[in-house]
Design goal:
The protein has 198 residues and is an alpha+beta fold. It folds into two domains: 124 residues, Beta Polymerase, domain 2 (2-Layer Sandwich); 72 residues, no CATH class. Helices cover 44% and strands 18% of the residues. It has a five-stranded mixed sheet with strand order 1-2-5-4-3. Strands 6-7 form a two-stranded antiparallel ribbon. Strands 8-9 form a two-stranded antiparallel ribbon. One of its GO terms (molecular function) is transferase activity. Keywords: Transferase.
């Protein structure tokens, strides 16, 4: 990996800082998501791009804000995100639907302000973050191996009973929770039948 990986990480963190500061100043309702949120919460860097979760109504303001900072924006065919690229080509995903559920004001309100890349930014609550990672698991995308080190680093920040409750209908997500229990990464969970997400 060597110095090249440090350069990549530094460049992504610089993009995160610029975009995050701009969105914050513009009053966009957002929170850091994805690998950068895991990094902010103590997981090892596994950074390929910058992910922000935001309320769909704020997407036009977010795009206008990033364009004013020199980002090139694009609306892909997918109906759950828009994209922005900085001058170096580093990608920022603006995600308004996580695991087929709209990002809500309540989810953004639960985000915690964490110092990330020398800037205080809202970061998805650890429980919401883990749920956003495991609910999309399917037979076509079921990489438990990459998730294990991330959730191991964050395990004490997460309400695992809530994760187990939300994951219960999904065989892939619920099996990942069982795997964490069997590996003794987390204690046995007690799902709560009334739990909803987001």
């Amino acid at each position: 990996m060597g110095s090249h990986s440090h350069e990549v990480t530094d460049a992504i963190l610089e993009t995160l800082k610029r975009a995050g500061a701009g969105l914050k100043e513009a009053g966009v309702r957002f929170a850091l998501a994805g690998g950068c949120a895991g990094y902010a919460r103590g997981a090892a860097p596994s950074l390929h791009d910058v992910d922000f979760a935001l309320v769909e109504e704020d997407v036009p303001l977010a795009l206008k804000t990033l364009e004013s900072l020199g980002f090139r924006t694009a609306k892909p065919p997918e109906d759950w995100l828009v994209k922005a690229f900085d001058e170096e080509g580093i990608l920022v995903d603006l995600i308004f639907s996580l695991a087929d559920r709209p990002v809500t004001e309540a989810m953004i309100a639960r985000a915690e302000s964490i110092n990330t890349a020398a800037l205080s930014l809202p970061v998805l609550e650890a429980t919401d973050l883990v749920i956003s990672w495991i609910l999309p698991l399917s037979e076509h995308a079921c990489d438990y191996g990459s998730l294990l080190p991330m959730v191991r680093a964050m395990r004490e920040q997460v309400d695992w009973d809530r994760v187990a409750s939300v994951a219960a209908p999904s065989p892939y997500a619920s099996t990942f929770v069982t795997l964490l229990e069997r590996l003794r990464i987390i204690a046995p969970t007690t799902p709560r039948p009334d739990s909803t997400w987001p």
